Amino acid sequence: MLFFSVYAGYAQQEKKPNILLILVDDLKPNLGAYGDQHAISPNIDGLANSGMRFDNAYSNQAVCVSSRYNLILGSRSTSTGLYDFGNEFRDVIPDAVTMPQYFRAAGYHAESMGKVFHIGHGNTNDKESWSVPHWKEKVIEYLDPESTNGQLTREEAFFENTRMYIEDTPPNHELPRGAAWESPNVTDEAYADGRVARHAIDRLRELSKDPEQPFFMAVGFARPHLPFSVPKKYWNMYDPESLPLAEFQEYPADAPEFAVKNGGEINQFFPIPTHQRIYEMDLQRKLVHGYYASLTYMDAQVGKVLSELERLDLDENTIVVLWGDHGWHLGDHGMWTKHTNYEQANRIPIIFRVPGVTDEGSSSKQFAESVDIFPTLAALAGLERPSGPQPIDGINLAPTLKDGGHLMKDHAYHAFIRGGYLGEAIRTDRYRMVRWTHTRDKDKAVVYELYDYQENPLEVKNIAKDKPEVVQELEAKLNNYPRAQGLP
Fold first, then answer.
1. In this structure, are residues 226 and 27 in contact, taking their beta carbons and an 8 Å threshold?
2. Which single residue of 41, 97, 305, 319 has CA 20 to 30 Å from 232?
């Protein structure tokens, strides 16, 4: 085994650390640990207070399927060409070694439950990654009959891959929309995240019976992904009138028209108006309320798993990582959900708790990306850096976990395709520069966006034409990255 000086605690013992990887769908850093004064998130806050919080953490692409490939492969979308739904990574890189596969090869038992790989929209699970079959749960779920009128809804069909598995299924756009929220008076386990937590607890109890067998457990929670279907008690924890609405709801001035979005995923739900960009205040407040209620419900399930880890005395030899797959627009720029290159869609929470390495309540300004988690966990377990065969784009963040002031890179990189253009972004402490290049027509002009978060954190105006010297400086950083692969 290869050990590094910062892992002395592990180097002195032959027993390998367990790994608990918690994945949360559509989770932006709207958490108490990240300074949100409205969020009720005591369990994730407690995890952050017992480990390290990364304040400058970013997804590599703000779409569920790709961002999960970024995490599990350690590869950016621009390295693999995996930008969208319906493309299986093994069709592109058949011999790829995923993060759980890598740990299996090192003697770990690897298993997953809930939403880990994105299953739906034409994508499926990867059997080679796990020691036992994946434990699948719902992402789109309703209990109130009025939410669906007893019919298969558009998003249910997407996530159940009905077009793949059920003959004569109508096209999704011909199916009815499901409700954007519901709040019945039910127990936590009436919905998927409660059942995922229960299954994780059961599996931890079983795995604890063989303390010599290290495990890699991936636990995926669906909320706060739409629909905001959670028990009523979590809705009742908030006064909706006190929750914040987006301060700036216009598109950024001088932004290219293909960089912004109108509708999209949120239009798959009722009562969302499909021909109105900025919603009425009551509807905005309901959506914001639903997001926070869903966040708090998910936080409670995370807490149950972490409490059981401690009760079983597994916490002292288990690395815990919590990761949000991408951010979420909550009405800023008049946009909702994800699928853009803007701040709210790309900033994420990343929290590490590494016994013997991280200090309690520590934080870092180190830029961290989804692709960094794979090589970091490998190093923390005393393993060699993974080498693919897929490109391993991430860096090892372990030196920063020991010393939050140890900074290794001064920016994050992410990308998204919109309107036939590939937008590649460099995010520094102060700026985000996006270079938009048409994926097919090379004669089309390259278009730039630049936002100054020191002067204007709300992205009110694209200032690329006002500060060409900054664009040039950040484009020089961008040019150090490999050319994007697999463009449509």
1. no
2. 305
Return the domain boundaries, the chain.
5-411
Give the strand pairing for 421-427 and 431-438. Answer: antiparallel
The Cα–Cα gap between 118 and 68 comes to: 7
**For 184-204, what is each residue's pLDDT tens digit?**
999 999 999 999 999 999 999
Give the per-residue pLDDT at 229.
Answer: 98
The model carries a pTM of: 0.96
Fold for the domain defined by 5-411: Alkaline Phosphatase, subunit A (3.40.720)
118 annotated active-site: yes
Question: Three-state SS string across the chain, please?
Answer: CCCCHHHHHHHCCCCCCEEEEEEECCCCCCCHHHCCCCCCCHHHHHHHHCCEEEEEEECCCCCHHHHHHHHHHCCCHHHHCCCCCCCCHHHHCCCCCCHHHHHHHCCCEEEEEECCCCCECCECCCHHHCCCCCECCCCCCCCCHHHCCCCCCHHHHHHCCHHHHCCCCCCHHHCCCEECEECCCCCHHHCHHHHHHHHHHHHHHHHCCCCCCCEEEEEEECCCCCCEECCHHHHCCCCHHHCCCCCCCCCCECCCHHHCCCCHHHHHEECCCCCCCCCCHHHHHHHHHHHHHHHHHHHHHHHHHHHHHHHCCCHHHEEEEEEECCCCEECHHHCEECCCCCHHHHECCEEEECCCCCCCCEEEEEEEEHHHHHHHHHHHCCCCCCCCCCCCCCCCCHHHHHCCCCCCCCCEEEEEEECCEEEEEEECCCEEEEEEEECCCCCCCCEEEEEECCCCCCCCECCCCCCHHHHHHHHHHHCCCCCCCCCC
- Span 93-150, pLDDT tens digits: 999 999 999 999 999 999 999 999 999 999 999 999 999 999 999 999 999 999 999 9
Cβ atoms of 375 and 396 closer than 8 Å: yes
Residues 6+ apart with CB under 8 A from 2: 382, 383, 384
Closest CA to 243 of 184, 316, 165, 331: 331
Residue indicated by tokens 């032959």: 14
Q: Could you tell me which residues come within 8 angstroms of residue 90 by beta carbon, excluding any fewer than 6 positions away?
A: 96, 126, 128
Per-residue pLDDT at 8? 43
CA-CA distance, 190 to 192, in Å (whole number)? 7
Q: Report pLDDT digits (tens) over 468-487.
A: 999 999 999 999 999 999 99
431 pairs with which residues across the strands?
452
